Amino acid sequence: MFKNLSILFIALTWLTSGLFFKIIPMNQRHENIVARILGHAFASEMTLLIGFLEVILGIWILSKKLNHLNAFIQLITILAMNILEFTLAKDLLLWGPFNIVFAFLFMAFIWYTYFQTRTIKNHDYAPITKKSSL
């Protein structure tokens, strides 16, 4: 149950971010960040592409196929994205320099969900613990 709810939360995060903040821009902040990092010429198109990729990632998460590869891609994406944003567009971030803290918390949650919990015969067991040597 924990793992399924966690996966749903992670997927909804990507779907919401991609759909409502990039594909259907509810504000210009994301496009401004993309423009700052990649340049203004194709900022709108690149923001839209990033949004579609985030939605695809959210759908992939819900498919539960190749979970560890999916988690690895999420972790690398979040890390790279936040390093770039922190370095080049800190003033445009929702929480400024504290954005990276929330990014690392989300990364830790993803890591825990995919690598520290396991599912056996459709039942969630969390966390993985070492057996006692008694």
Chart the SSEs and their pairings.
Elements: H1 2-23, H2 29-38, H3 43-63, H4 67-88, H5 99-115, E1 118-120, E2 123-125
Antiparallel strand pairs: 1-2
Helix pairs in contact: 1-3, 1-5, 2-3, 4-5
Describe what this molecule looks like in 3D:
With 134 residues, the chain is mostly helical. 69% of the residues lie in helices and 4% in strands. It contains five helices and two strands, in the order αααααββ. Strands 1-2 form a two-stranded antiparallel sheet. Strand 1 (118-120) and strand 2 form a beta hairpin. 16% of the residues are buried. The mean pLDDT is 88.
Query: Gap between N and C termini, in Å?
Result: 30 Å
Helical residue percent?
55-70%
**What structural category characterises the helix and strand content?**
mainly alpha
Mean pLDDT across the residues is 88
- What does the radius of gyration come to? 17 Å
Indicate the overall shape.
globular
* Main beta sheet strand tally, sense and closure: 2 strands, antiparallel
Q: What is the overall number of helices?
A: 5
Could you give a quick summary of the protein structure above?
The protein is mainly alpha-helical and 134 residues long. It has helices spanning 2-23, 29-38, 43-63, 67-88, 99-115, and strands at residues 118-120, 123-125. It is built from five helices and two strands.
